[in-house]
């Protein structure tokens, strides 16, 4: 890729919060000497992404056998240079095909399959974290908890779908019969946080940004506030960097209890759902830093000081267009 050039960027699963934010952000914020042309793809044509991007393709769902061919056709037709995987199901799809896409001239930053599977599944996530010395809630597998309240959640899921608070044995019996694969943990009373991270091609931690999850809607944050990084969080980040092979954008959630003890609860091998705009506004432009890394440019965020008290509020806004 030469300077003063146009980068053709493909954003799959573009209809969600992260996809539409990436389109809007990259349409107005570029690195020096480059112009971006944004190509969006989604299985649903009724999405704002169709009107925000330079080009839009309706494609089969990611689990559909025809999805792979549809992506390759877009890459060839649009001369795609960079792909930004967005959704949880994007990560394994593009991780498995990274070598093939790179042969086609495409750059992407994504965790490998082994790392994704290890961190996406709550069972292996908790076992991994305990092994490397990172605190997690007391974990019972699929067995009933020793005391209530407790939490039951799918072993592998995106967002907060089917995460339930259990008050008694009756709740446990009901929800354990509804979920095919699940984990049970202690309920931790405290404040919830998300930490947005970016790792480079050498699995080096480039940046981290902690923010409080003030209000959620359907698993995505709608109010989030910049948080200060505690010393114990720095220790957790060092352990993650030292023991795990991570590449690209990831995020994890933790709860700080009343004694300010931190417990890691979830890990996502993708952009955070909903809260990425706050991290970007705080000075950590993860999408453009990723582009610099993919272009083999140096990145340095050591001088960035996020504004204290920076808070993001998300709200709906109507938008109208004529469609056939």
From TrEMBL:
One of its GO terms (molecular function) is ligase activity. It comes from the Bacteria. Keywords: ATP-binding, Ligase, Nucleotide-binding. The keyword Disulfide bond does not apply. Pfam families: ATPgrasp_Ter, PylC-like_N. Residues 126-295 form the ATP-grasp domain. PANTHER family: ATP-GRASP ENZYME FSQD, FUMIPYRROLE BIOSYNTHESIS PROTEIN C. This is ATP-grasp domain-containing protein. It comes from Paenibacillus oralis. The lineage of its organism: Bacteria, Bacillati, Bacillota, Bacilli, Bacillales.
């Amino acid at each position: 890729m030469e300077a003063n050039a146009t980068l053709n960027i493909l954003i799959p699963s573009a209809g969600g919060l992260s996809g539409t934010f990436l389109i809007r952000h990259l349409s107005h914020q570029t690195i020096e000497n480059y112009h971006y042309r944004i190509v969006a793809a989604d299985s649903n044509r009724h999405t704002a992404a169709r009107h925000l991007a330079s080009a839009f393709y309706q494609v089969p769902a990611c689990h559909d056998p025809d999805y792979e061919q549809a992506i390759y056709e877009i890459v060839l037709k649009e001369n795609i240079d960079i792909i930004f995987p967005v959704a949880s199901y994007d990560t394994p799809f593009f991780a498995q095909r990274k070598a093939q896409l790179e042969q086609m001239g495409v750059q992407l930053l994504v965790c490998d399959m082994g790392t994704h599977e290890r961190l996406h599944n709550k069972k292996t996530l908790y076992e991994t974290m305990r092994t490397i010395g990172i605190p997690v809630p007391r974990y019972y597998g699929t067995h009933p908890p020793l005391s209530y309240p407790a939490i039951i959640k799918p072993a592998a899921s995106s967002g907060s779908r089917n995460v339930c608070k259990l008050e008694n044995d009756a709740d446990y019996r009901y929800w354990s019969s509804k979920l095919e694969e699940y984990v049970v943990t202690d309920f931790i009373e405290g404040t919830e946080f998300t930490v947005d991270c970016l790792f480079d091609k050498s699995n080096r931690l480039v940046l981290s940004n902690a923010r409080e999850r003030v209000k959620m809607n359907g698993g995505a944050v709608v109010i989030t506030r910049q948080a200060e990084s505690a010393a114990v969080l720095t220790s957790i980040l060092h352990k993650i960097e030292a023991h795990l092979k991570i590449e690209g954008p990831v995020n994890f959630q933790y709860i700080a209890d009343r004694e300010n003890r931190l417990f890691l609860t979830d890990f996502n091998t993708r952009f955070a759902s909903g809260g990425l705009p706050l991290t970007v506004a705080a000075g950590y432009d993860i999408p453009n830093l990723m582009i610099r890394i993919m272009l083999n440019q140096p990145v340095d965020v050591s001088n960035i000081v996020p504004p204290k008290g920076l808070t993001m509020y998300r709200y709906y806004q109507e938008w109208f267009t004529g469609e056939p």
